[in-house]
From TrEMBL:
This is biotin--[biotin carboxyl-carrier protein] ligase. Its EC number is 6.3.4.15. It comes from Oryzicola mucosus. GO terms for molecular function: biotin--[biotin carboxyl-carrier protein] ligase activity. One of its GO terms (cellular component) is cytoplasm. SUPFAM superfamilies: C-terminal domain of transcriptional repressors, Class II aaRS and biotin synthetases. Residues 21-159 form the BPL/LPL catalytic domain.
Amino acid sequence: MSFRLAPHAASAGFQLEAHDVVSSTNALALDRAREGHPGNLWVVSKKQDGGRGRRGRPWATLEGNLAATLLKVLHNDLSHAATLGFVAGLSLSEALDAVAPNARISIGLDGGGGGNVRRFELKWPNDVLASGSKMAGILLESTMLPGGSLAIAVGIGVNVAAYPTDVPYPATSLAALGARADAETLFLALSDAWTDIERVWDGGRGLSAIRDRWLQRAAGLGSEVAVQLEGNIVRGIFETIDQDCRFVIRDAQGETIKIAAGDVHFGAVASAGSS
């Protein structure tokens, strides 16, 4: 099976550029924007060897996994551009539900918490978890275009056939969970789910509904967390995300802290007295 768009996505005007191997789907998507592509372009591959994660960390997509980037070009209100990452998380989790209904996933592990019973959970700001282990990561990169438009590459990397073992956190893959879906099948479902969820987002006008749906899948909601902020550790109870999708915790003194960017840790790491 080759990569293809869901009929719903194709009829909505999305386009597809598929590769066997790329250095970075995000970089290719931004190149297309600089070349004049108007956006709504999916760039996909089953192997990526030069990708990046958050804070410039290397992110390689192993053979058989999914590297997918959606190019969006925004012309007007850019204030909600960063919240496309939450659209991506919701779209991917719904696609995973669709293609892996029988995956062996435990509920309520350290990465879950809070009584959440959704099978694939969303870890703020940009990870998808299964049984507390990382299944996927999301990275938004952007560049300004002539005329003031903003090109955004919404990068989504998913462990389908394999997962990395040389990382400092638990990871898993669809294959490890007993699911038989391949990268092409997952992308088909992802392109379909994105089309519907972006319509809800509606250029940021529907962000409140996106926030509500994201919280239904939130990993660690109501549990103790530790957030690393440029060398400092902030601890507290994960209460919610606010209207701007910032991470909201309540510390031991009862103070509310709103965090725009940081690395979140659950379980034993969050409970430890030192970093």
